[in-house]
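can u do me a favor
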């Protein structure tokens, strides 16, 4: 019996990033978020098992907190924040802990990624995505 899975599918060729967005390493916007095992136990996918957008925070020095608080106030019913523990496995798959923010959609795909200082671009993207269905 042949089976088909959409897990390896990517949307990255169909995503238009804002021109002002800084290119950062790790999976591309539109790629399925890769799972990792944390050294302290559990997996990244364990933290994504809910029907909301998940904002993965890879903190540099905690300076990201005001941007994150603003996003949580703006989108409290659809956004969950996961501040990730420093992990070699995570750094290999997603890049360094340099204050990056990675938005994972409810379907497990990367919806956006940016540096904390570019969180206004993430906010604009969430606004567009969450209001595009209203007419």
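np, heres the sequence
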């Amino acid at each position: 019996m042949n089976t088909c899975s959409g897990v390896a599918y990517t949307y990255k060729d169909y995503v238009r990033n804002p021109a002002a967005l800084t290119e950062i390493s790790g999976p591309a916007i539109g790629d399925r978020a890769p799972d990792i095992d944390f050294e302290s136990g559990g997996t990244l996918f364990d933290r994504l098992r809910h029907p909301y957008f998940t904002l993965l925070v890879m903190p540099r020095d905690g300076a990201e907190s005001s941007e994150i608080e603003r996003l949580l106030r703006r989108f409290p019913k659809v956004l969950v924040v996961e501040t990730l523990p420093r992990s070699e496995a995570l750094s290999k798959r997603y890049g360094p802990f340099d204050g990056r923010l990675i938005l994972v959609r409810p379907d497990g795909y990367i919806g956006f990624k940016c540096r904390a200082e570019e969180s206004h671009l993430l906010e604009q993207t969430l606004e567009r995505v969450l209001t595009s269905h209203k007419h």
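Residues 119-131 form the longest helix (13 residues). hope that helps!!
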